[in-house]
Amino acid sequence: MDRLLEIFGSIADTETTAYLLEQEFVLFGLAAIALLGLLSGAIGPFIVMRQMSFSVHGASELALTGAAAALLFGLNLGLGAIVGSVIAALMFGVMGSRASQRDSSIGVVLAFGLGLAVLFIHLYPGRSGTSFSLLTGQIVGVSEHGLAQMAVVAAIICGALIALYRPLVFSSADPEVAEARGVPVRAINMIFAVLVGLAAAQAVQVVGALLVLSLLITPAAAAAAVTSSPGRAIGLTILFAEIAAVGGMLLSLAPGVPVSVFVTTISFVIYLVCRAVATLRR
């Protein structure tokens, strides 16, 4: 209890926060989480429109498997997370092409992937804190190379979303009519599944596999509560995700607790406020 009070008291320690903001590794982390906020805001509304929240959870857990394998074999964690999440997304797309099969297929692959992740983490001979960071995130551990990798992935995802915007919105809103109009719905579904996997892999490095939904889903769900326009939803989601991501990072500096604690809290508060606004409108 004393430690909890100490954490709350240190949030207002602006002197420590200002000092840490002068450190290079903190600036790298701040840039990385701002990129993740932009990325989450751009792709989140489509995830909510397509009702793919469980897919995001599955991709993040398989990103954990890929990162754990990379940790065990001495490879790049970010690359391992990307490979794991993209493989998961492709498997979800192939095995769950029908809506009736989607949840069960994700559950099957998710359970198998988690079993492998537990095995890889158990076999890892290094510090337990390194493997624990895969679950809770370690934003201050983002290197210059990791930041560059995140920027490249974010550019790929945002570029693809811009290029596919119209058919993606159409196929998300009414896939049957879109397919009848000649939109390649299946191809778009597979491409979007890969984009979700890439986004989940980046989020795992920041907030951890357990809390990916706090950035990829919660801000988009909050925006969906107050607007039905896809364009406005994307704008609001980016705003909400940046507030949660950057605000959570700044609040976590002085207390020294994982950034995911504050990111999830801010996201949830924003969601509650938007739900209250929607209720008042009705």
Structural class: mainly alpha
Mean pLDDT: 82
Question: How do the SSEs run, as a string of H and E?
Answer: HHHHHHHHHHHHHHH
Overall geometry comes to globular
- Strand count: 0
- Helix count, per DSSP? 15
Helix content class: over 70%
Distance between the termini: 41 Å
Largest sheet: none
Radius of gyration: 19 Å
What portion of the residues fall into strands of 2 or more residues? under 5%
Low-pLDDT sequence parts: none
What does this structure look like?
By secondary structure, this protein is mainly α. The protein has 15 helices and no strands. The longest helix is centred in the first third of the chain and has 26 residues, at 24-49.
Short description, anyone?
The chain is an all-alpha fold and 282 residues long.
Topology:
Elements: H1 2-10, H2 14-20, H3 24-49, H4 53-72, H5 77-95, H6 99-123, H7 128-136, H8 144-163, H9 165-173, H10 175-180, H11 185-207, H12 213-216, H13 218-226, H14 230-253, H15 259-281
Helix pairs in contact: 3-8, 3-11, 3-13, 3-14, 4-5, 4-6, 4-11, 5-6, 5-11, 7-11, 8-11, 13-14, 13-15, 14-15
Feature tags:
single chain; mainly alpha; 282 residues
